[in-house]
Amino acid sequence: MGKVTLQSIADRLGVSRMTVSNAFSRPDQLSAELRRKILDEAAALGYLGPDPSARSLATGTAGTVGLLWTTTLSTALADEMSARFVGAVADELNQAGLALTLLPATTDGAVVPARDVALDGAIIYSCDPQLPAVDLLARRGLPLVYVDADAPAKRPSITIDDYGGAKAAAEHLLALGHRRILVVTTGFGPEPGLVTGPPPASALRQRVLAQRWFGWMDALAAAGVQPQVIHQPDPYAPEQLDRLLAAADRPSAALCLTDVLAQALIAAATDQGLSVPGDLAVVGFDDHPLAARNRPALTTVRQDVDRKGRAAVRALLAELARRADPSAEAPLSQRLRVSLVVRESTSG
């Protein structure tokens, strides 16, 4: 037998070429029984389906959605919270018959993913809105959903209540009587060290950092507390933390941008012979899977990262539906709730 084609399968089954094509690209147009019969015949003949590039040209769709990251993919996927987000996005897309393409934000190579990869739409995950890759995706006219980032007008976003969660964390420490409070953060630049003055503009463009920062500072200012702030770009380079914890006027409590920073701080305090929470109470943010398993278990602000991933996909699917039918309802931006989870690192 010669080369297997849609037409040759159609001839063997006594159906039209379009019917065979629909079995692969438009399954909703066929009964389940007929589609299974066509796919079984194609498999028996060793036919995998229409060429993806040709099908994309014919249908005007790529069958895949991009997920843009600021960090390298290896760094992002090494973090359990990010990996869970990716898993939730991939599962939700799979149910819609779409694939997921991970897009690094690089723009300096011969192939620029945000510009050159065929996509039906994209989810922009926790990216600086001034990132060149974000601009490239927007200029392509693709449906876009922003996650953990401020979206331009008429673009949907999925965020969490970072401000409210940070404020609740600070108020928790204040209610316990703490006044010498340390803030441990990243995003202020490449160098670690104590921070004086307001965050740089580049930090405030990062929505998560900015909202958590303002939540802490508003709660502390209302209580008349001026915190110490340390910039810790590498959680596992504790030299600056060691000096701070060894000082006579060391802090009695700490607010950390993430649970990873909080766990690194607890390790540094333990190495200095300090007890947590007796000598230093610590609050994180995110409810990383390790937070409850840590010893002491970490007080933190819980976000539902799985729900966030599913919500992002549903918003993007709604945007895709609007491309096919402009009268379809526009997706709404969502701000998901968070909750303070009190554990041993503040309660003893």
From TrEMBL:
Gene3D superfamilies named among the record's database cross-references: 3.40.50.2300, lambda repressor-like DNA-binding domains
Record organism: Propionicimonas paludicola
Keyword Transcription regulation applies: yes
Signal peptide: none
Superkingdom: Bacteria
Protein name (Swiss-Prot/TrEMBL): LacI family transcriptional regulator
Domain HTH lacI-type: from-to ranges: 4-59
Taxonomic classification: Bacteria, Bacillati, Actinomycetota, Actinomycetes, Propionibacteriales
Recorded GO MF terms: DNA-binding transcription factor activity; transcription cis-regulatory region binding
InterPro entries linked to this entry: HTH_LacI, LacI/GalR-like_sensor, Lambda_DNA-bd_dom_sf, Peripla_BP_I
SUPFAM superfamilies: lambda repressor-like DNA-binding domains (SSF47413), Periplasmic binding protein-like I (SSF53822)
Record bears the keyword Transcription regulation: yes
Keywords: DNA-binding, Transcription, Transcription regulation
